[in-house]
Amino acid sequence: MPMRRVMLGVVVVAMTAVLAGCSGGGSTGDASPSKSPTSPLASAGVFAYLKVQIGEDWRQTKSQMVVMDGNKKVGHSAPLLLADRPIFTTDGRYALTMPSFLDEVVAVSVANGKTKSVPCEGCGDRKSECQCQIVAPIGASRIAWLDGNHHLVITDLADASPRPRRTDVTLPTQDGFLDQRVSPQLIAGTDGAALAAYPETSKTGFDVIKQAYLVTPDGKPRRLRPDRPDSIDEAVFSPDGTQVALTGNQEDACATVTVADVASGKGKTAPVSAKPGATCDNNDVYIDSLWWDRDGTLNVTFQADHENTTAKDGQRRFEGGRWVDAGVPQTGEVRQLNAGTATIQGHAPGTLFIRSDGERAKIDTDVRYVTAAP
Predict the structure, then answer these.
(1) Residue ranges of domains in the chain, CATH in brackets
(2) What are residue 68's phi and psi, to 5 degrees?
(3) How far, in Å, are 52, 116, 292 from residue 110 at the CA level?
(4) What is the C-alpha to C-alpha distance for residues 368 and 46, in angstroms, rounded to an integer?
(5) CA 199 distance to own-chain centroid
(6) Most buried residue, 14, 132, 189, 254, by CB count within 10 Å?
């Protein structure tokens, strides 16, 4: 998924910790040493995670992106204010995140751990001027976002001095409440394309815009017609780019995920927790993370709204057109790595472990998100 909608989640985490009398997590922890120079943990795979240091309030809550290769720390960002979920470029060479209220992308090189930042060219007001803080990978080491006039902007993190380049590709706005125009946002990316939608409409209480467009750097945006009944807030492409999973947390609907074929634009929708055909007057569960494993398995983690459902928090995988239990602990998240797994244990921010070939190591505490490299 692209980086977005993390500010509210981190604010909730921060306020919950403050009310409970919790304190911050200190400096980034070092990975546990391997048992031998040839430990399988060293080759478990590359991943990035977000460590959250809880302050007295959300303004003092800091986040730090850390990049690992197995149990070896490659590099990390400086502490950032409410940083977003880490994502990787499609070639896996860079992990990146975005601090809230700043017009820049912060990236860490997987090769040498060096950090660089890319300006978003004056995109100070993320809601009315442009959407530069919603960034998606779009092939190789390139990333993309939309400027204030809804033009596609691309920059290559592999350049010695990355500079944003505005293209001629433009996305349409949509009719909103009264005379308001609703701006598009990039919500996912893959090799050679990105997906644009209108996720902010799910939070307004008015008509939800369910349109989505496939955007390429040198072509006209193509509208997809996945026939999704609910909002499109977030999305993630399959590893081969042939499918895209769409989801949203619409207030008056059961949580669902639509899997659409990129070539045809058509999709099929399945409820995450509710029984097929059931209706919900309010949220039953809230989608927390949606991702594809390297083997093409689609996964979701969610938190139950206990006022509206008897469901429990959990992780599920998509099999045969429906969601089934993933067989992992109720609290936590398990991600597939190149040769192992990364697990956040406990309610996030929790403790991060990796496992490979029977060996297990504690990596860090106070971890909010983990993302595996492609």
Answers:
(1) 6-372 (2.130.10.10)
(2) -125, 150
(3) 21, 12, 21
(4) 17
(5) 14
(6) 189
